[in-house]
Amino acid sequence: MTVLEMRDVSKAYGQGAGRVEALRQVDLTVGAGGMVAVMGPSGSGKSTLLTIAGSLEEASTGEVLIDGAPLSRMSRNDKARLRRRMVGYVFQDFNLLPGLTVAENVALPLELDGVGARAARAAAREALDGLRLADRASRYPSQLSGGERQRVAIARAVVGDRRLLLADEPSGALDSVNAEAVMRLIHEACKRGMAAVVVTHDAQLASWADRVVFLRDGHVVDQTAPLPGPESLLTPGQTS
Ligand code: ADP
């Protein structure tokens, strides 16, 4: 089942001489369980692609569909609900609230969406269990390592029945061991049925994805299966 579909999407910022075409005629489809890595030089449109996929900005032309529903036909309220319920975001700098515990941070998106405290806590516990963070639930972010904080941010992005995970260099601030761990967790979330789009600069990390999309000047210039990566090491004899 297709979770994210971008059809012929272009995005321009500014007007006249200051006009920048951040995305040009991008087609991208990600199904449930699919993990796509996006690579490209600075300014090539990677963050713009994520913000449009997550309905934080509108495409100038083209159409974005999430679970088959076109964003262009949704009201602002519909889109806000979709962002709260269906989409999880992970950023480079974690964005956890320092005054809340790990469990409270993870439960927060659900509570903001009107889910009762008990149900939100149960869902948070499940997300934390799934990321092997249950023993950190009552700590505060300042009591965690950078790698642990990013794992909590991933738990917050997958809590509840989210369908689409959008990550903008989620491992950019981490050492290589923690960076691999973050990609593995995103990969595991996909195996449980989410669709993910992950921006990364690192080809080794991109190899966790099923597909790598290369952007240049707003165009998709290539889409390939990644080189055999960490997964192939886990399953000897399998090369993709
Ligand atoms: P990347 O994430 O690959 O570095 P971006 O998507 O951030 O690229 O940016 C693509 C292009 O769009 C760049 O030229 C950038 O300056 C421009 N751009 C991005 N966001 C805005 C904005 N809000 N206003 C004007 N220009 C923008």
Radius of gyration: 18 Å
Question: How does the major sheet shape up?
Answer: 6 strands, mixed
User: CATH homologous superfamily?
Assistant: P-loop containing nucleotide triphosphate hydrolases
Top CATH class: Alpha Beta
Number of domains: 1
The assigned CATH architecture is 3-Layer(aba) Sandwich
Shape field: globular
Q: What fraction of residues sit in β-strands?
A: 25-35%
Name every ligand kind in the structure. adenosine-5'-diphosphate
Number of helices: 8
Structure characteristics:
single chain; 240 residues; alpha/beta; Rossmann fold; six-stranded mixed sheet; four-stranded antiparallel sheet; 8 helices; globular; binds adenosine-5'-diphosphate
Task: Write a brief caption for the model.
With 240 residues, the chain is an alpha/beta fold. It has one domain: P-loop containing nucleotide triphosphate hydrolases (Rossmann fold, 3-Layer(aba) Sandwich), CATH 3.40.50. 34% of the residues lie in helices and 26% in strands.
